[in-house]
Design brief:
With 500 residues, the chain is of the alpha+beta class. Helix content is 40%, strand content 19%. It contains 19 helices and 19 strands. The protein starts with 5 loop residues before the first strand and ends in a 6-residue tail after the last helix. This is Rhamnulokinase.
């Protein structure tokens, strides 16, 4: 029996932090309210030559989030769910034990692997089968790297579980693979909606480790008796939502119409649109766009862009040098800098995982015969203007592939707190930007739980509720001539990496 207001718990795990958020839906008032009850860092760990996720620490933090719901007086949680970043995974032995900490997608064990797989399968065939953007850290390349460098690990593996699947297993004892995250592996067939057996066989990967995917919104167990005893909490149903955080973020886009363009803005920027089916054209392949499964039969045509990782890594480098300047102050410094002096392609390979991001940005500018940013503010302005211009580039290509024109761009996620970036984006694309909500992935997680529980009827109703419950700020374009000239300069500079 679902109460009114209905109360559910979302765990939203990003590549740098995670949060537990309680959502309450008052059906009679038509209002959603949320409360962040636990926030924690998600810090990868370097062990020897490899970078790993501290998966057991994440499990500990999930437990703390469940405990907080009890301590804060939420006595009846109807369900909980987890979403996270894509591509990474854990491997279980036949006895159900985890075979080592999952690799971090920025680990170097996939260096050079993508070209080896392309030689075996062929670029065109791989795209025709999976419809996925080629990124060196995709699950397919991680698994092939393990097979090549540590085949004993795959020999011992009985089950492949992506990060939310793995954490759910720890909570419930049940093993399930969720659809939206499975589609990010580049081992999932984009038209049959199953693991691609021919591709798995061709790469000599163990087919038996891949579980049939469950649809978003499926109930996939309850907290195990052992966990309930450990935490002294009642058993709570667990639901598989759109467990790829981008899938959840797109659910939360408060669009008034079915045709819209979105930007999920965080560590990664993901820009695209929803389509009825995957777009697998030669042009989509040439432009390296991705097709990822969405909730309730939708497809996400989008492009992964490096995103706020660039700013985060600059801050991390400066923190190590003892500067310790906050993000707000860095944005303020950037705002004071003269515009349009330096540009980078945010997706150049040299920015994937450098030792010192500010120096790498300076080197890019030297390599492209530009002036070189010297101050922290100049470097941050360079990043922000370049991101905004890259958004225009990808938005225009999205329109060409989808055959649709979008009046503006919806931005969701933590990046909307950077108001200068939102304004730059509106000016770069010369259209309105609608920014909000901040907690996009968590809200998408919550509303899919409510749809599963029967509290919300469908996706359209969910988006309407989100729009009426949370503010959306509109940004209007400025300085058309200046941004148009900047775009031409950006394209010239970024052509060295063929503006991916």
């Amino acid at each position: 029996m679902v109460s009114n207001p209905s109360t559910v718990l979302a765990f939203d795990l990003g590549a740098s932090s995670g949060r537990a958020i309680v959502g309450r839906l008052d059906s009679e008032a038509g209002q959603i309210t949320i409360e962040e009850i636990h926030r924690f860092s998600n810090d990868p760990v370097q062990v020897g030559n490899h970078l790993h996720w501290d998966i057991l620490r994440l499990l500990h933090e999930l437990k703390q989030g469940i405990l907080q719901t009890k301590h804060l007086g939420y006595s009846h949680i109807e369900s909980l769910a987890i979403d996270s970043w894509a591509v990474d995974f854990g491997l279980l032995a036949a006895n159900g034990e985890l075979l080592g900490n999952p690799y971090h997608y920025r680990d170097h064990h996939t260096d050079g692997i993508m070209s080896e797989v392309m030689d075996i399968v062929g670029r065109e065939k791989l795209y025709a089968l999976t419809g996925l953007q080629f990124l060196q850290f995709n699950s397919i390349f991680q698994l092939y790297a393990i097979q090549k460098n540590n085949p004993e690990l795959l020999d011992r593996a009985a089950t492949f579980l992506m990060i939310p699947d793995l954490l759910r297993y720890f909570l419930t004892g049940e093993k399930h693979s969720e659809f939206t995250n499975a589609t990010t592996t580049q081992l999932f067939n984009a038209t049959s909606f199953t693991w691609d057996a021919s591709l798995i066989e061709q790469l000599h990967l163990p087919a038996q480790i891949f579980l049939p995917p469950v649809a978003s919104g499926s109930r996939v167990g309850s907290l195990s008796p052992a966990l309930c005893e450990e935490l002294d909490v009642p058993s709570i149903p667990v639901i598989a939502v759109g467990e790829h955080d981008t899938a959840s973020a797109v659910v939360a886009v408060p669009a008034l119409h079915d045709d819209f363009a979105f930007l999920s803005c965080g560590t990664w920027s993901l820009l695209g649109t929803e389509t009825e089916k995957p777009i697998l054209t030669e042009q989509a392949l040439a432009w390296n766009f991705t097709n990822e499964g969405g909730v309730f039969g939708t497809n996400r045509l989008l492009k992964n862009i490096m995103g706020l990782w660039l700013i985060n890594e600059c801050k991390r480098a400066w923190d190590k040098e003892g500067k310790s300047v906050g993000f707000a102050e860095l944005v303020k410094q950037a705002e004071a800098v003269k515009p349009f002096q330096f540009f980078i392609d945010p997706d150049d390979d040299m920015f994937l995982n450098p030792a010192h991001m500010p120096k790498q940005i300076q080197q890019y500018c030297r390599d492209t015969n530009q002036a070189v940013p010297q101050t922290d503010g100049e470097i941050i302005r360079c990043i922000m203007e370049s991101l905004a211009l890259k958004y225009r580039f990808i938005l225009e290509r999205t329109e060409q592939l989808s055959g649709k024109t979008y009046r503006g761009l919806h931005i969701v996620g933590g990046g909307i707190q950077n108001e200068l970036l939102c304004q730059f984006t509106a000016s770069a694309i010369q259209r309105e930007v609608w920014a909000g909500p901040v907690e996009g992935s968590a809200l998408g997680n919550l509303v899919v739980q409510w749809i599963s529980l029967g509290v919300i009827a469908n996706l359209r109703e969910a988006r309407k509720l989100i729009r009426s419950s949370f503010p959306v700020k509109t940004y209007h374009p400025q300085d058309e001539a200046g941004w148009q000239a900047a775009y031409a300069a950006f394209l010239k500079v970024a052509s060295r990496s063929t503006v991916k």
